[in-house]
Amino acid sequence: MRKILLMSFLLALCFAASAQAQRGCCSHHGGVCGCVCCDGSPLSDACRPFFPCGGSTPTAPSLLTASAISGTRCSLSWLDNSSNETSFRIEEKSSSQFSFQEVGSVSANVTTAIVGGLTPETTYSFRVRARGSSGDSNYSSETTITTPAEVSICAAPALCFSGNRFKIDSRWQTKDGASGSATVVRLSPDSGYLWFFSATNAEAMFKVIDACSFNNSFWIYAGGLTDVQTVITVTDSLTGRVKTYTNPQGTAFKPIQDTSAFPCS
User: Fold this and answer.
1) Is 75's pLDDT higher than 50?
2) Same domain, 165 and 245
3) Which end of the chain is more exposed for a tag (fewer CB within 10 A), N or C?
4) If residue 106 lies in a helix (H) or strand (E), which one and from where to where?
5) What percent of the chain has pLDDT over 70?
6) What is the spatial distance between Cα 91 and Cα 137, in angstroms, rounded to a whole number?
7) Are strands 166-173 and 229-236 parallel, antiparallel or unpaired?
8) What is the DSSP code string of 147-206?
9) How confident is the model at residue 21 (pLDDT cuts 50, 70, 90)?
10) Structural domain includes residue 136
């Protein structure tokens, strides 16, 4: 009889400890649904052990870049390094703020986003992390931009192509983790090339083709002489649309022939 009472007492203590540990699992007190909070946010670190779901958290995204579209909007792009994310969460902080705030999210496998509601001539920092059923990844490295006073992203010294409409940006990363922004060089109103390490060593070439009379689209073509991880971002200054093209690390640059990259209007 004493043993039964003792076991009942210990079970009651364990249940009480478990219930206490589960308090505050979800910031909005909406309850737990499976492996995450019912509002889609992850479980708190203190609570997660009581709802083991298996699996691992996603790997953090990398090569985050930001490009101002106007004084009030910017485009973000990053590299997706995971295969088990359910979304990407975007956070923003202006130079007058002390902490980051989540300002939006995109679905799994999406690696670009447009952030609006910015203030002209203001410096902003951004970071992104992947969210999965087992929790959030670490944050990407931060990237910073200063929004311009002028509206156009094609104002000097930026280079835009095809009627001064499409801005080309690129980031590279080597096997040892070194990374940087490519230098864009104009060859003609519709074409140019990129260099990473030396101005005498071209790494990739590109062109924007006006095929509006053919299929009502602008085409993006590119080819490279590198096996370095390369992310090329093309921004349509007229509409704010963004396309990102990625060449994986250690892979010979695969030709890009996107014949429906951007609608003409």
Assistant:
1) yes
2) yes
3) N
4) strand 101-107
5) 79
6) 14
7) antiparallel
8) --SSS-TTSTTS-EETTTTEEEEEEEE-TTS-EEEPEEEEEETTEEEEESS-TT-EEEEE
9) very low
10) yes
Q: What is the mean pLDDT of the chain?
A: 85
Per the domain annotation, does 200 fall within a domain? yes
Enter the tokens of residue 40. Answer: 């889609």
What letter represents residue 159's amino acid?
A: L
What pLDDT band is residue 36 in, cutting at 50, 70 and 90? Answer: low
This prediction has a pTM of 0.54
Indicate whether 176 and 220 sit together in one domain: yes
For residue 26 the two structure tokens come to: 């979800």
**Considering its fold, how many domains does the chain have in total?**
2
Map tokens 């995204």 to a residue.
61
Amino acid making up residue 247? N
Do 141 and 185 share a domain, yes or no? no
**What is the residue range of 215's domain?**
160-263
Structure-token match 């006006």, residue found: 210
Residues 168 and 259 in one domain: yes
Res 18: pLDDT = 41
